[in-house]
Design a protein that fits this description.
Elements lengths: L9 E7 L3 E7 L5 E7 L5 H12 L6 E7 L2 H8 L5 E6 L5 H4 L24 E4 L2 E3 L2 E4 L3 H14 L3 E5 L8 H14 L3 E3 H4 L5 H31 L6 E3 L5 E3 H6 L7 H16 L5 E6 L4 E7 L2 E2 L1 E2 L2 E3 L2 E3 L3 E2 L2 E3 L5 E5 L5 E7 L18 H8 L7 E2 L3 E2 L2 H13 L5 H22 L12 E5 L3 H12 L3 E4 L6 H7 L3 E8 L5 H18 L4 E10 L6 E4 L3 H16 L8 E12 L21 E6 L2 E9 L8 E3 L2 E4 L4 E4 L3 E5 L5 E5 L5
Parallel strand pairs: 1-4, 4-11, 5-6, 5-9, 9-10, 13-25, 25-26, 32-34
Antiparallel strand pairs: 1-2, 2-3, 7-8, 11-12, 13-14, 14-15, 14-20, 16-19, 17-18, 21-22, 23-24, 26-37, 27-30, 28-29, 28-30, 31-32, 33-36, 34-35, 36-37
Helix pairs in contact: 1-7, 2-7, 4-5, 9-14, 10-11, 10-12, 11-12, 12-13
Length: 664
């Protein structure tokens, strides 16, 4: 498997974002080479190969190639997946539309539920019924033939099959799938393969999403694989939502696992770099061109969830617990009908981009605001060919300010404040609302714009430390380059005895090792108090360990535990991982001598105008000190050190920032 690799050669990571495509090549000695180029939304593979070319490395030196893509995410957001049919048990045709009978916003009667991925005319039923103990009603083969004929006439691109109790007894699903594949020759996703666990609605929704995404994801990956091969690169592995990579063939067959492909790479990279700097508990803050992704890391482990909803589609698959808000560098500023300044969700993207790019964009964005405020310099070059123009940014912000009776600079300050408010709300959601105190966590800032806003957000949250990695602007790509290969396996557990639990784990472990020989296995389970509707996933080897971990997790999440209440194990999980060769980044940072006299730039902050020293990150080594107000310019990102903050570069190359009152 290409992603598993050995200790020598380059490990290549390529992350496609909404505005830029980031490329990182990591050598065994810790040397990191980076490139950043504009993304190509019409064909992401073009940006991937352009980034590789900009890196200037020899393809013969590349040991492994890992890729993070937004193809699946965008297909859900834009509803541009394949034309998909659904086959389900008679009487359950409309389950995917009925859902849990809840509302998007409980008291907002004007909010509509997102339309299901499969319209009613493409939902088909077969007469059959499985129960907990097996067959209740045999599969009607004559009716099945009629359904296959109807789906053939509908000219669909993919089919999802989800039958009642298919997770326990898949025989009927297998028969339906075989008939469809034999006749139609199109992708068929079956629920017992996609999500073999109970809860009919979530299982159906996840299986439908898998089928819906397969045509587009398969086409893209086949195209990418061909271009990579012609460039002399290894077969790509793809980052999945749970934070590990899998072969491109698996990604093409089960694309629902890869909806959070890009953000997961950032969490992996941030967790790794923060751990090297001695910070196991962090909040990751990835601010890119289109959006901001935040996630918690506790004791060095990225927190996962199986209760994600992406673009209104429930996906009950293991995913990094990432929350996304539309507050990126390219997020557009506008004034609503009530006269309030807003930022996002619309983004200027990579084409035409913010007004200051000079590529035809005229809308003011967060990047334009940072340029006008002085945090970014006029004439700065981004992603190789993009040169920032302050005059264009001022003109765009003046147009926004005209509706608010503000000049361009005051408008810029307002845009940054609004964006910061959205990002603070997101960080509180993944910390305070998860039972985590942000004051106990360091904030890891990365992405091209993360360092510009990190100190301000940390002040709002009460975080005492901000970490800005050396490769902050391309940290998601670094995370891809160093990721483990990972397989997640789950099975519903209906028994009660300890012996049955051990047998269930052993059976699942055998499946995991067959899929990934030589893997390291870890056990998890979904537990709940008797009578509860939803579960928490916790690690543990035995029932006692699982129940103890569940009590702690329940108290952290909900503020209480009930020690005398029976605990049920609902699902058992086995995670199989196989590590690649992770480089020692400590060896890549060298002592440098900073210039005696640093340039000074005038900035406008919420506290007023200040003179900030401008540091060149390439001239800083271990022990280099930064005192705010200051700007640290990196090859692919910028960090704004606010007044009252002080930073030191550690031996991994991370700029460790602390509030002045926290610095001894």
């Amino acid at each position: 498997m290409s992603a598993a690799g050995g200790p020598d050669g380059l490990r290549l990571g390529v992350d496609v974002g909404g505005t830029f495509t980031d490329v990182v090549a990591v050598a065994a000695d810790g040397t990191v080479r980076i490139a950043k180029v504009p993304s190509t939304p019409r064909d992401q593979s073009e940006g991937v190969l352009s980034g590789w070319a900009a890196l200037g490395a020899d393809p013969a030196d590349v040991l492994a190639f890992a890729h993070g893509t937004t193809v699946a995410t965008n297909a859900l957001l834009e509803r541009r997946g394949g034309r998909t049919a659904l086959v389900t048990t008679e009487g359950f045709r409309d389950l995917i539309e009925i859902g849990r009978q809840d509302r998007v916003a409980l008291y907002d009667l004007t909010r509509a539920r997102p339309a299901p991925l499969v319209p009613r005319e493409l939902r088909f039923v077969v007469r059959e019924r499985m129960g907990p103990d097996g067959v209740v009603t045999p599969l009607d083969l004559t009716g099945l033939d009629a359904v296959v004929d109807a789906i053939a006439a509908a000219k669909v691109d993919a089919v999802a099959v989800c039958l009642l109790f298919g997770f326990l007894h898949p025989e009927h699903e297998q028969a339906v799938g075989a008939a469809l594949r034999a006749r139609l020759g199109i992708p068929v996703s079956m629920s017992h393969e996609v999500l073999p666990e109970f809860r009919e609605y979530e299982r159906t929704s996840t299986t439908v999403a898998d089928a819906y995404l397969r045509p587009r994801m398969a086409d893209y990956l086949e195209h990418l694989e061909g271009r990579a091969s012609r460039a002399g690169l290894p077969e790509p592995a793809v980052m999945q939502s749970s934070g590990g990579v899998l072969d491109v063939s698996v990604a093409a067959r089960h694309p629902a696992r890869f909806v959070l492909s890009g953000p997961a790479g950032g969490v992996v990279g941030a967790s790794h770099v923060a751990g090297l700097s001695g910070f196991p508990d962090v909040l990751t803050f990835d601010m890119g061109g289109t959006s901001t992704d935040v996630a918690p890391v506790v004791a060095g482990e990225a927190q996962l969830t199986t209760e994600s909803v992406v673009a209104g589609v429930p996906l009950r698959l293991p995913m990094v617990d990432v929350h996304t808000v539309s507050a990126g560098g390219g997020s557009v500023a506008w004034v609503d009908e009530g006269g309030a300044l807003r930022v996002g969700p619309h983004s200027a993207g990579a084409d035409p981009g913010p007004a200051c790019y000079g590529l035809g964009g005229v809308e003011a964005t967060v990047t334009d605001a940072n340029l006008v405020l002085g945090a970014l310099p006029d004439g700065a070059r981004l992603g190789g060919d993009v040169v920032l123009r302050r005059d264009l940014a001022e003109a765009a912000l003046a147009r926004v300010g005209a509706r608010l009776s503000l000049d361009a600079r005051a408008s810029a300050l307002g845009v940054v404040r609004v964006a910061d408010t959205e990002m603070v709300r997101a960080l509180r959601l993944i910390s305070v609302e998860r039972g985590l105190d942000p004051r106990d966590f360091a904030l890891v800032a990365f992405g091209g714009a993360g360092g510009l806003h990190a100190c301000s957000l940390a002040e709002e949250l009460g975080c005492r430390t901000v970490l800005v990695p050396r490769a902050a602007g391309v940290l998601s790509a670094l995370g891809l380059a160093i990721s483990d290969v990972r397989h997640d396996h789950v099975r519903t557990f209906a028994a009660r005895g300890d012996g049955e639990l051990e047998a269930a784990f052993a059976d699942l472990a055998a499946v995991a090792l067959a899929a990934l020989p030589g893997a390291t296995l870890s056990r998890q389970a979904d537990l709940r108090y008797a009578g509860q509707s939803f579960e928490l996933t916790v690690p543990g080897e035995t029932r006692g360990e699982l129940e103890a971990a569940f009590g702690e997790a329940h108290e952290r999440r909900y503020g209480h535990r009930i020690d005398d209440e029976p605990i049920e194990i609902v699902n058992v999980r086995v995670v199989a991982t196989r590590a690649g060769a992770v480089p020692d980044l400590r060896g890549a940072e060298h002592a440098l001598t900073a210039p005696a006299q640093l340039p000074v730039r005038r900035l406008l902050l919420d506290v007023g105008e200040v003179d900030a020293q401008v540091h060149d990150r390439t001239a800083m080594g271990p022990g280099s000190v930064v005192t705010g107000p200051a700007v640290v310019e990196m090859p692919e990102a910028t960090c704004l050190v606010r007044p009252g903050w002080r930073g030191v570069v550690d031996d991994v190359g991370t700029l460790v920032l602390s509030r002045a009152e926290e610095v001894s």
